[in-house]
Write a structure and sequence with these properties.
Layout lengths: L20 H9 L6 H4 L5 H6 L4 E4 L25 H11 L4 E6 L10 H14 L4 E5 L7 H8 L5 E3 L9 H4 L5 H12 L6 E8 L5 H13 L4 E6 L16 H13 L4 E4 L9 H9 L5
Helix pairs in contact: 1-4, 4-5, 5-6
Length: about 290
């Protein structure tokens, strides 16, 4: 059963000062790019834009899967835009980022799931912005491990793939995904040489139980994941999976302690945390602990 539509006080926030919002919007819109901040209705969009950051969404804005939690468009997809990698790199340069995050829609229609396009984008960023740190948040490539290797070969600082929810909820929340396949992807990435930081994220409030959250943490650690994000699920519309429960901040604090006790090097756990929220700070905080 869904909870009341009224958000609790801890999910209300002040509108941040404009800051560098105009610079981010210009860098993205003038180049015909997309951000997951906008497409996924992220509650932190204004904060991140004001700080001069954004998460670039490649191969979008439409996705080939029908996950019931996600706001990203489900209409017809289009062939990859060959100019997008360079334009993304130019936007990173214009925004003067030291650390950037790029993600992608799932493209099961493409033979490699879009891996080559993602790799080209990372290479373009390396060329246009030497020294910039890169986190890439990828799909599962439908279990195409050659496609995964294409991305890993570009050596991003952080390889992120979200588990999203618990094993029991996958049929309802991620019907075209596979819990164990995602864990295998993370394990393969963790075993890659040279090593890189492996990251994943979970949403809470979808109907999971505490023991399931702890089991997911164990599964992620056993797969080599070192960075973890946990945040409150917020339904984009009445047609999406309902919010079963608003998880209070103190429970997020408890989960952070549980994750750290399991050996995660860095954890961001709070109601409004999202996968790429302050990604640079999470990476920097954990970097000295990582065995790399």
């Amino acid at each position: 059963m869904a909870v009341s539509t009224e958000k609790p006080s801890w999910l209300r926030r002040r509108i941040p000062v404009p800051g560098r919002n105009a610079t981010v919007v210009a860098a993205v819109k003038d180049r015909g790019l997309h951000t997951v901040c906008e497409e996924a209705h992220c509650p932190n969009q204004m904060e991140c834009f004001s700080r001069g950051t954004a998460t670039f969404l490649l191969l979008g804005p439409s996705c080939t899967r029908r996950c019931t939690f996600c706001a990203v468009n489900k209409s017809s997809v289009h062939p990859p835009d060959s100019g997008e990698p360079l334009r993304t790199a130019q936007a990173v340069a214009q925004m003067e980022l030291n650390f950037c995050v790029v993600t992608m829609v799932t493209r099961d229609d493409l033979p490699d799931g879009g891996a080559t396009h993602v790799a080209r984008t990372i290479k373009a960023i390396r060329k246009e912005c030497p020294g910039v740190g890169i986190e890439v948040l990828i799909s599962d490539f439908a279990g195409n491990w050659e496609a995964l290797e294409t991305v890993l070969a570009t050596k991003p600082e952080v390889l992120n793939h979200n588990l999203e929810t618990m094993l029991r909820l996958y049929p309802r929340v991620r019907p075209q995904a596979d819990y164990r396949r995602s864990l295998e992807l993370l394990a393969r990435a963790a075993a890659h040489m040279p090593p890189m930081v492996i990251k994943s994220g979970l949403m809470l409030g979808l109907g999971e139980k505490k023991n399931e959250v702890l089991q997911a943490m164990d599964d992620l650690r056993n797969s080599g994941c070192r960075l973890l994000t946990l945040g409150q699920y917020l339904a984009p519309s009445d047609q999406h999976h309902p919010i079963v429960r608003y998880v209070p901040p103190e429970e997020f604090d408890e989960y952070q302690g549980e994750a750290l006790s399991r050996g995660f090097s860095g954890v961001a756990s709070a109601p409004l945390v999202r996968s790429s929220y302050q990604a640079d700070q999470l990476y920097k905080t954990a970097r000295n602990k990582l065995p790399i």
